[in-house]
Each structure stands twice: as C-alpha cells, then as structure tokens.
Write a structure and sequence with these properties.
321 residues; mainly alpha; three-stranded antiparallel sheet; 7% strand; elongated
Length: 321
C-alpha cells in the first residue's frame, strides 16, 4: 500500500512537473511576444517622435511665413490707408468746389428765374389787358352779328315764303306746259342700221311703202314713201341723254304729285331695253333725278318717301320682279 501510494504520488508529481513545464513554456512564449510588442512599440514611438519633430519644423516654418505675410499685409494696409486719406482729402476738396459751384449756379438760376417770372408777369398782364380789350371788341361785334343774324333769319323766312310761292307757281306753269304739249306724246327713236326708214327733221319719220304686185303678174307702180308726224324723233346718232331730256319734264311732274307713264314699244331687237335700262337710260337717269330732288327738298324741310316696284309683262302675263 505504501508503495502504491508512493507510485501514485510520483505520478502526480510527474503530472504536476509536466504541467509546470507547459506553463513555463507558455510563459516563455508570452514573454517572447511581449518583447516583440515592446520592440514594435519602441519603433512606433521613434516614428511618432520623428513625425512630431517634422511637424514642429513645418509649424515653425509656417509661423515664419505667416509673420512675413502679416508684415507684408500690414505694410500694404498702411499704404492703402495713406491712399484712402489722400483720396478723402481730394474728395473733400472736390465736394467743396462742387458745392461752391452749385451754390453759385443756384443763385444765378434763382436770379434768372426771378427775372423770367417778372417778365412773364408783365407779359401776362399785357396779354390780359389786350384780351380784355379784344373781348370788349368781340362783345360789340357779337352784338352786331346777333343783330345781323336776326335780320338774316328774318330774310331767310321771307325768302322761304317766296321760294314756296315760286315753287307753287313753277308747278302750275309746268303743269300748264305739259297740258299744252299734250297728255299723250309719241316719240320715235331710230336704231342704227334701220334701212330705208329715216328721220325727217325732229318730228317726222319717212317710211317706205311696201312693194306691190299686180294680179296679172306685172309690176305695180311704186307707191311714194309715207311721212309720219310724231311729237319727237330721235335719229340713230342721238345719245341717251337727249332721249332722257324729253321725259325729264314728266319725272318732275311725278315729283309734283301727278301720275306719269313712260312706255317703250317696238319689235324684238328694236332697242327698248337699251333705251330704258342701258347706261344713262331713262330708268337710271330718272332714279338719279328723283334722288337728287329728294335730297334738295329734304334740305328745305320736306319729308319724302320713295317706293319702287318692278314687274315684267311677257306673253300677256304680268310677273312681279
């Protein structure tokens, strides 16, 4: 038993020695790592000291440069302040000179203005006096013109009465003239190229007789041309204005209140449409005359109303146009 216990103790001692050796080995390894870490820390500290020295040198250089810059800036600032003082002095002298010139100009302008105002007042007073004199003259002239206007109005009233009386007399004379000329008048207008038909003066038309033949076939003696008397004959050379002049009196009779009819009669192609509706024909010329008479009478105080109707008679039928 003792030997067994001793063997066990030896084993335990051996085991403890082995553990101690392992612990010692671990401690040695840790010591070696610590030494390496110490070496690294020393190298890092040396590098930091070197960097610090470099930074201090740079800082010293920067401070030296800053002092130089500050010194240069102070010198420039002093120069600028000197320029500013000179500029202020020049400005003050210029301002004083400008103020003196302004005061002199203002004084001269005020004096000139006072003279102008005084002259304008004198001119105004003279103009007012002249205007008053002219106004008095105009008042006298206005009174004289008023008297003349009253006399002119009285004369116009007298002339208006005389005009109405003369117009009534004219209508009576015109109606009497139309009655003497006849209530129905027949006029003829020869178309260019009418052949053997010709005008004989201003109131006759020569019409050739138609050719005749005997019953036995021989030639009958030729008859003499017939001369037809009319109220007026217009030859081929007559213008539209000449034709309208013949019926112008009838238009005036219509304006006086009488019923009037102008009828164009003839074969197809004889010139009825040209005479009535052509350029400067009877219908357009009559319309112009009616419009002119209406304007003239409206200026004299008349009130007129004109109404026109257009119809067509064809094949014995009447068509409202």
């Amino acid at each position: 038993r003792v030997a067994t216990r001793a063997a066990r103790d030896v084993d335990r001692a051996t085991t403890a020695a082995a553990a101690a050796e392992a612990t010692a080995t671990t401690a040695e390894l840790r010591a070696s790592g610590a030494e390496k870490a110490r070496d690294l820390a020393q190298a890092e500290a040396a590098r930091c000291r070197k960097a610090d020295e470099t930074q201090r040198a740079a800082l010293a250089a920067a401070e030296a440069r800053s002092r130089d810059v500050v010194r240069e800036a102070q010198e420039k600032l002093a120069a600028v302040e000197e320029c500013v003082r000179d500029s202020r002095a020049e400005r003050d002298s210029a301002v004083n000179a400008a103020q003196e010139e302004r005061d002199a100009a203002v004084a001269a302008a005020q004096e000139e203005r006072d003279e102008s105002v005084e002259e304008a007042r004198r001119e105004r007073d003279a103009a007012v006096a002249q205007a008053r004199a002219e106004l008095e003259n105009l008042s006298d002239e206005a009174a004289e013109h008023h008297d003349r206007g009253a006399k002119a109005l009285l004369r116009c009233a007298e002339l208006d009465v005389a005009l109405r009386e003369s117009d009534a007399q004219r209508r009576q004379l015109h109606d009497a003239l139309q009655t003497l000329r006849g209530g129905v008048r027949v006029c003829a207008r020869l178309k260019p190229g009418a052949g053997a038909i010709r005008a004989e003066g201003l109131d006759a038309v020569v019409v050739p007789s138609a050719a005749r033949t005997k019953v036995d076939g021989g030639a009958a003696p030729s008859a003499k041309p017939r001369c037809v008397r009319l109220d007026r004959v217009f030859g081929p050379e007559s213008a539209q204005g000449e034709v309208y002049a013949e019926v112008d009196a009838l238009v005036r009779s219509a304006l006086d209140g009488y019923d009037v009819c102008v009828l164009a009669y003839g074969a197809t192609g004889s010139g009825k449409t040209h005479t009535m509706l052509g350029e400067d024909g009877i219908v357009p010329s009559a319309a112009k005359a009616i419009a002119a008479a209406a304007r003239d009478r409206q200026r004299r105080g008349w009130s007129l109303r004109v109404r026109a109707t257009a119809v067509e008679v064809y094949a014995e039928k009447c068509f409202d146009l």
